[in-house]
Amino acid sequence: MNRLCIIVLILLTACKQVDNKFELSGNVIGNTDGIVVLIQVGQSRFDAETSPILDGKFHITGSIEYPEKFSLMTEKPDQRMFSPTAIFIAPNDKIEIELNTENIEKTVMKGSLVNDEFQRYFIAIDRYGDDQLEQWYAEYEKAKKINDTLSIKELEIQESILYDEIIRIRTKRAYEYIKTNPKSFVSAYSLYEYRETFDAKQIDELLGLLDKSLHKSKYIYDIVNADRNQPGIKASDFTLKDLQNNEIVFSKFSKDRVILMDFWASWCAPCRKSNPIIEKIYQRYKDKGFEILGISQDRDIQTLQKSIETDQISWTNLLDVKGINAVAQLYNCSSLPSNILIDRNGIVVARNIDLSDIENEIVKLLR
Predict the structure, then answer these.
(1) Which of 262, 283, 279, 280 is nearest to 336 (CA)?
(2) Which residue among 4, 177, 220, 236 is least crowded, i.e. fewest CB within 10 A of its CB?
(3) What pLDDT does 77 receive?
């Protein structure tokens, strides 16, 4: 390869990397203590992008492959309640924000066409009925305060009817929005968001209408691959690195073994609580053809290593990646802790087994 070709290749690679980056900057109105946090949907705030608030200003950068929804909020030490605002970010976006901590709904965002579209969609569809629910809640609290049992009972009946009607209208509006905007990433998000309320025929219809480029988004990817890695199906292969930076190929690691795939993270309290129990099970069966493979959602390797030492974990742990290539995404594990049991032939046997039942299920497969 001559020098000119090498230079062109380097420039093209650099351009591709820049195109995936985004930038948020702006002012914080109201309480300026703490940090600004940007969280991907399904991500822990412990792994989120953050920025200190300095002189009332913040600046956050990140990288994404395709447009998607995030939550933006402020956080102070020991804070327990959060008021996030939704934002849709595309690669190469530069968004200016006035983040209002006193009234998050008055936050102003400029500089992103896809976010402008999303905010209009969000108000018309995802937020439809919020004012009615707030009014119901105010009446319910008033009735409780004076112990008006008759009104309380009537309002509780009204709640179910009101909520069902709001969901019906939101679903109808989302359906019409997707049909009208088949090339929009917001439509891809909408189909994912309302996948549980659309029927199978509607989902197939809308998937067929959406532009093929949208099928690369994580939203459509998840819908299309919803049935993967379910019980009775062969477990998908993948490659991840361990804490020593060695590549572990799942199909080789799991050959002729019963595998418990454990999705966890250092910041997940229920995960940490179950680790010692799982370790005891591992010690009992590790020499009988049983293995545990931890898939960590941590981003800080040092924190993960410290957690492994503290909990005295001896099974293999791998660091998951972000985005559409994540193993958690591949196996449809959207919450922690999650587990998947796989037999010696690589077939998924069960998902999210209760801690009290895990040992019995392992024993059955080892017979």
Answers:
(1) 262
(2) 4
(3) 73
Bridge partner list, 295: 263, 318
Please tell me the least confidently modeled range out of 16-25, 27-36, 332-341. 16-25
- DSSP SS3 for 261: strand
pLDDT tens profile 105-149: 899 999 999 999 999 999 999 999 999 999 999 999 999 999 999
The SS3 of residue 351 is strand
pLDDT score at 8: 44
Confirm if 331 and 237 have CB atoms less than 8 A apart. no
| Rounded distance between C-alpha atoms, residue 8 and residue 356, angstroms | 59
pLDDT, tens digit (0-9, with 9 covering 90-100), for 154-179: 999 998 899 999 999 999 999 999 99
Ranges 39-53, 118-132, 197-211, 257-271: which has the least confidence: 39-53
Of 138, 158, 131, which is closest to residue 150 (Cα–Cα)? 158
Q: CA-to-CA distance for 70 and 305, rounded, in angstroms?
A: 29
Place of tokens 């679903």: 171
Q: Give every CB contact of residue 98 below 8 A, 6+ residues apart in sequence.
A: 26, 27, 29, 107, 108
**Which CATH superfamily includes the segment(s) 3-109?**
Carboxypeptidase-like, regulatory domain (2.60.40.1120)
**CATH T-level fold of 239-366:** Glutaredoxin (3.40.30)
Among residues 193, 209, 222, the alpha carbon closest in space to that of 86 is found at 193
Domain ranges of the chain: 3-109, 130-224, 239-366
Give the three-state DSSP class for 104. Answer: helix
- The Cα–Cα gap between 338 and 262 comes to 6
- Please check whether residue 89 is in contact with residue 112, taking contact to mean a CB–CB distance below 8 angstroms: yes
The token duo for 191 is 């189909």
